Amino acid sequence: MTKQMCKTLGLLAGTAMIALAPASAMAAPLSDEQAAALLAKMNQLEQEIAGLKAQLSDLQQSQQASEQAATSAIAETNAKIAATEATLAEQKPVKVSWKGAPELKGEDGWSFKPRGRMLYDFGTVDAPDSINDAGLGFANEARRIRLGASGSIPGGFGYKVEADFASGDVEMTDALLSYEDGGLTITAGQHNNFQGLEELSSSNDTSFIERAGYTDAFGFERRVGLSAQYSTGIMLLQGGVFTDNIADLGDDVNNSIGFDVRAVAMPKFGETQTHFGASYHYRDLGDAFSAQRYRQRPAVHFTDTRFLNTGNINNAVSESSLGLEAAVISGRFHAAAESHWLTLNRSANFADPTFFGGSVEAGFFLTDDTRGYKEGVFKGVKVSNPVGKGGLGAWQVNVRYDRLDLTDAGFTGGTQDAYQASLIWTPVDYVRFLLSYSKLDYRDAAILAAGNADYSVDSFAGRFQISF
Questions:
Q1: At 236, which helix (H) or strand (E)?
Q2: Closest C-alpha to 308, from 209, 240, 237, 407
C-alpha cells in the first residue's frame, strides 16, 4: 500500500467520524435534508473506499507478478550458472608450470614448451711467436643461439624442433617426431645418433667449454634417421639407421648411410650413480666422400686454426668406430672417462688408418650440490642455494686429460695431449658462467713453429650462458 493511499483512507475515516459525531452528540432528530445529505456523503465515501480497495488489489497483483518475475529470473540465472559450471567441469583444464620457460599441459595429452639457449664465448689462444696465424690471440663469438619448441601429442607421440642462429644463418639442430610406449621410444627425424656419453649430454651441461677433442675431429653430429631406444631398470639399449645431416640433404651427392648402436648399464649403489656403456658406429660414406679429413681446434671454437689435421685421405669408402664410456656420481664428486677408435676403410689395397681419441675428467662441487644424470646422459645441476634466496649458487671445479691421436698408417695428422681445468658458477638454475684453461702439447703438428712440429699452446676461455 502506497503512502498516498494511506493518507486518503485516513482522511476519509476522519471525515466519516466528523459526519457521525453530531448524530451521537445531538439528541434532536435530523431533518430529511440533513439525513439525505448524510446518506449521500456516506455513499460517496463507500465508492471512494471501493475504488481504493480496487487500486490496492491491483497493486498487490502487480507486486506478486514482480516477485514471480524476479523469482523466475533468479532461477534462470542459477540454471545458467550451473550449466556453465558443468561445461567447465567437463572441459580439460590447462596446467602451466615453469621450467626456465612456461610449459603448457592439457589433460588430453597435449603439451607445449618453448626452448632456447644463448652461449657466448670469449678468450685467447697463445701459441709460439713464430706461428703467424690470424686465428690466434683474442677472439669471441656467439657459440650457440638456439630457439625452438618441444611437447607431447595425444597417443604417446612427441615432437621437438630447434634451430641455431649463431652463424647468421638458420641451421636446424633437432627436428623430430617421437613415440613412447612404456620403456620404448621410437624417433624419426634429425637427432643425435648415440655416439657416446659426452656427445649425447647437452652442451648446456658439459664440464668444459668444449667437449673432448675426438667428438669434433671424428665428425660427431646430428643426422636424419630412424631410431629406437628401450629402457628397463638399469639397462638402456639404443640403435638406429641414419643418413646425413639435414643441411646436406639437398645435395644429390650426399648419400651416406649407416647405423649406430649403444648399450648402457646404470646401476645405483645407495646414493652413488654409476654408468658403463659401449657403442659401435658404421657409416658408408657414399659418393660424396671419396676423400675424408680429420682435424681439430685447440680446445676452443672461436678460432679456425687447426694444429691437428690429417689433410684429405683419398679412396675413403666407410667409417667404423668403437666407443667405451664410464662415469660415477657420488655426492659432490663426479668422474667420467671415454675412448673412441675410428677406422677409415679405404678401397682396394689402400691402408686403413685407425685414429684414437679419449678423455678422463673429475669434478667436485665446493657447494652442497651434485651433477645431474638421467637415462644415460649428464644433466644440469639443480642449485640447492641459489643467488637471490640467501645462497651463493653452485660452484664446481673440474680437471680433464684429453688425448687425440690422428697419426696412423702413414698419415700424420699429429697428436694432442690436453691438460685442462675449469671453474663453473651456476648462480640459479638455467644460468652458468664458465672459465677454462687448457695446456695443449702437440707432436707432429700440422702447423710448424720455426720448423718445429712439437710445441705447446695455451688456451684461455670464458662463457656465459642462459638456457631454458
A1: strand 235-242
A2: 407
pTM above 0.90, yes or no: no
Distance CA 397, CA 420 (A): 11
76-121 confidence digits (pLDDT tens): 888 888 887 777 666 667 888 887 889 999 878 899 999 999 999 9
In whole angstroms, give the CA distance from residue 408 to residue 200.
Answer: 28
Closest CA to 286 of 314, 259, 260, 254: 254
Q: Please, which pLDDT band fits residue 3 given cuts at 50, 70 and 90?
A: low
- The tally of CA atoms less than 13 A away on the side-chain side of residue 261 is 4
DSSP structure string for 166-235: TTSS-EEEEEEEEEEETTEEEEEEEE-----HHHHS-TTS-SSSS--HHHHHTT---EEEEEEEEEETTE
CATH architecture of the domain with residue range 120-144+204-467: Beta Barrel (2.40)
Beta-sheet strands, E only, within 243-303: 257-265, 268-269, 272-284, 291-292, 295-296
Break the chain into its structural domains and give their ranges.
1-23+41-60, 120-144+204-467
Query: What pairs with residue 272 in β-bridges?
Result: 269, 330
